[in-house]
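Following up on my earlier thread - several people asked me to post the actual chain instead of describing it. Fair enough. Here it is, all 260 residues.
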Amino acid sequence: MPDPALTAAQSDSDDQDVIAAVRGLANLVSDVDDLDGVLVRIAEFTVAAVPGADGAGVTLIRASDGSPSLLAWAVTHPFVREIDHLQYEICREGPCLTAMQTRRTLVSGSLGGDRRWPRFGARVAGLQVHSALSLPLLVRDVVVGALNIYARERDAFSDHAVGLAEQFAGPAAVSVGNLQVLQAAHARAAQLQAALTNRAVIDQAIGIVRSRSGGSAEDAFDRLRQSSQAENVKLVAVAQRLLEDAVRRAHARHSHSTPD
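Reply from S.P.:
Thanks for posting it. Predicted structure:
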């Protein structure tokens, strides 16, 4: 939608807002332990960058062989969460979902009468929210999420506002993509640490079995594995129980051998 009333001063001010928002993204420290907090900050920068916005949300998805699954989303205001709840969980239709499916920017200035999303639009209009602007977030040509921007006014997002939102979407996509990379690395590190810990527990249990039976490491491992299968519990759980039992026995021997 054109905006002929836009002055050069207003255009310059809007450009400066986008620059400031992008700088905010660049300075944003991604913390995988506070995923919602990071996404909320990105959503706040979105509102600051796009004129006419009353609220915004950032959606993060996990790509899969079938349909992408929703990983997380964060919003700037409760009314945005209510809208996205309708979109993702009740109606299963709306500008964000379409933007991610088509990989295109979606704009609506009258959601209540928008035939693209009849169930969603009617419900959102009932919340007195009439305009929406959704942009897919692309990283190396892969959709990693979306920006969703809402306004209570009709036809709130001019061509100028859409252009600014699209300028901001690129750096926002990079921030979201980096967050996903950090999450994946964090998960792999946690899995590796768990694997190393489990291996250490099993190795200690093998040592205990060998000290009692005098057999080989292979024989001891087979005994642990057989116990795991017979009890239908994980091998590391059998090993941990054996270690705890050995510790209790050692404490009991120590207390009996200690003079009063």
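The chain has a mean pLDDT of 82. That should answer part of your original question.
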